[in-house]
Structures are given as C-alpha cells and as structure tokens.
Amino acid sequence: MIRVLFVCLGNICRSPTAHGVLLGRLEEENLSQHVSVDSAGTAGWHVGKSPDPRSQNAALARGVDISDQKARQVSPDDFDTFDYVLAMDRSNLDDLNALYADCGSKGTEPKLFLRSYGRSYDEHEVPDPYYGGEAGFRHVLDLVEDACDGLLADIRARMEA
After folding, report:
1. Which is catalytic among the residues 13, 14, 72, 89?
2. Is 103 among the residues known to form the active site?
C-alpha cells in the first residue's frame, strides 16, 4: 500500500481538494485499493470540520465530492506512516520541515507538491484561496488536477519498480 498525505494550513481548502482529486484519479485507474490518501493541516484551527463550502462547490462542479472529509492536524507519526508528505506552499513546507526535525523522524521528508509533480504551470505553490473569490478555488483545482496527474504517474512508476 502506498500512502499519500496532502498538507495545507487549515485542512479545509487546498489539501482536501487534492485529497479528493487524487482519490478520483485512483478510482478511475482502478488503483484505489493500492493507494491510501489523506490530508491534514499544519494548524489545528479547523480540526473536525468539513472542507470550506467554496472548496466543496468548486470540486463538485468538476465531479469531485469532498464533503465527507474532516480536518485534522498533521502529527509527527505522519512522517513514518506516509510515503508522500506533500505541502501546498513553502510556508507549510517550512512548518513540516521544522516538525520533521523536531521529532527526529527517519521517515518521509516533506516535499513541495506542485514543484515536484506539476507539469503545465509555472507556479510552484498552490495559493490559499480562503480570502479570495470563487476564481481562486477554481484555480486551485486547475493546479491540483495537473499536479495529481504527475503524482499519479510517479505512483504508477513506484508500483512497477
């Protein structure tokens, strides 16, 4: 089983969107039984809450239902549990790297999601759409869909190795 963790700040916009998009891609490819997906936030403000309604609406408009997800905060154990720990932006990557160093983990080092797997955009971060309008949530989906396609290719290669 390959395990993927997406991480943003509050776990109510970007990381649940990526979580839902990758789950959908895995189901389309009949790989969902081989890959586990989760999401978390570096901050604990929204623990137990559903994704932001704007994220849910934008995702649902593209056929992705993220309404059943609940926010959680990332933990030191996640570095040992997940094969991929993917931050949505540099600020969250810095927070993950600090947690990784503090806990003395020998597990998976976090990476910047878009920079590692994005193919079609010059952007290296998934911007936080929380304080913006609907267009920001659609842009997040554009970036996440592109990067999830690249991540899925990497997962397939890992499974074949």
Report:
1. 14
2. no
**0.85 exceeded by the pTM?**
yes
pLDDT tens figures, 107-119? 999 999 999 999 9
8 is catalytic: yes
Contacts of 74 (CB under 8 A, 6+ apart): 5, 7, 40, 41, 42, 96, 99
The one catalytic residue among 38, 78, 95, 128? 128
Using alpha carbons, select from 95, 49, 78, 35 the residue that is nearest to residue 13: 49
Q: Which CATH architecture has domain 2-160?
A: 3-Layer(aba) Sandwich (3.40)
Assigned token pair, 19: 């979580």
Domain edges within the chain: 2-160
Q: Is 148 a catalytic residue?
A: no
Distance CA 160, CA 121 (A): 27
Strand order in the sheet with 35-41: 35-41, 2-8, 84-87, 111-112
